[in-house]
Amino acid sequence: MNQEEIQLISRCQQGDQEALKEIFDKYHKKVYRIAYGVVRHREEALDIVQEVFIKLFRSIKNFKGRSHFYTYLYRMVMNTAIDHSRKMGKKFVSSLDEEGSFEPSEEIEKGPERILLHKELEEKVKWAMEKLPVEQRAALLFREVEGLSYQEMADAMGCSIGTVMSRLHYGRKRMQELLKDYVGPHSQSSGPSNPLKGEGVR
Amino acid sequence: MKDSCSSVSELLEKYFDQEVTDRERLLVEGHLQDCPICRDALTSMEGLRTLIKVPVEEATQQEDFPWVWQKIERGIRLQEKAGWWQSLRS
Predict the structure, then answer these.
(1) Of A118-127, B15-24, B58-67, the least confident
(2) Which of A44, A128, A180, B54 makes an SS bond possible with A39, Cβ 3.0 to 4.6 Å?
(3) Are A201 and B47 an interchain contact pair (Cβ–Cβ within 8 Å)?
């Protein structure tokens, strides 16, 4: 942690709400991305963001600075999102059935059909993510969305690097099985028709 | 899978995650030049990363976060009020 962040956290620990606002400005998108990645539901993800920052303001006194602040925050987000999902029960189950009755559309380049394919693909990814144990889902989100290193992931998840690698490996393997039509080198997603490619998001 | 794949299979995922040492990187890159199977495996991992990441990024871009901050401020005020009333009662 740099000096600026140490001071910011120290101010927040003393109850300075302006300091919390600065932390919010710096981290809210990261918090949202993890929350949305777990629940895959926009309004619920926003509720989790709200809950996390209120909880953080109350509990930041307990942060002793032994780890990076963002791994402390990531752990809080993940725990809150998991609790939230459990409370909501089956509400987030995808509309697609257990066997994956999803039928990919024919090759589509542009227009409303492309938007539809995009939505269908999103649904398929959501369905596949929900099939994973939450620890594997967390590992994939931390790595693929946030780009955390193995060490940072281990800190955020409170486990060893070996466990992180194992969760990533089995999570990827399962996702590749579930999304085999979209992630292989000869799949729809590798061609120019992939609606999730070439839109300036990396 | 070729015999030589087994020697780098464990490293391939670490290579994709940029967690290999310089020596391991050279080993994997040397193997990749001659192995279309492992190149395909890398392409699959890249495809999966895109599928996981892009919808999350797109959802994030659409949100109204200033409004969320207002709700957080309100939530903190409510908690402080509740705490104040509780302290009066006890």
Answers:
(1) A118-127
(2) A44
(3) no
The band of A187, judged by pLDDT with boundaries at 50, 70 and 90, is low
Distance CA A52, CA A41 (A): 16
Of residues A162, A167, A118, the one with CA closest to residue A140: A167
pLDDT of amino acid A108? 39
Considering CB atoms only, which of B57, B73, B76 is closest to A201? B57
| Among A residues 61-120, those touching chain B with beta carbons less than 8 Å apart | none
Whether the CB-CB separation of A157 and A78 falls below 8 Å is answered with yes
Task: Say if B52 is an interface residue toward chain A (CB within 8 Å).
Answer: yes
Identify all chain A residues contacting B53, using CB atoms and an 8 Å cutoff: 144-145, 201-202
Cross-chain Cβ contact A33/B69 below 8 Å: no
What are B12-29's pLDDT values in tens digits?
999 999 999 999 999 999
Quickly state the pLDDT bin for A197 (edges 50, 70, 90). low
* A143 closest CB neighbour out of B17, B54, B59: B17
Verdict on whether the full-model pTM lies above 0.95 = no
Closest-CA residue of B relative to A180 is B44
pLDDT at A163 over 90: yes
Domain positions in chain B: 3-78
- Please check whether residue A46 touches B, CB under 8 A: yes
Concatenating the DSSP letter of every residue in B50-74 gives HHHHHHHHHHHHT--HHHHHHHHHH
Cβ contacts of A130 within 8 Å, gap of 6 or more:
A40, A92, A93, A94
Element (H, E) at B7: helix B3-16
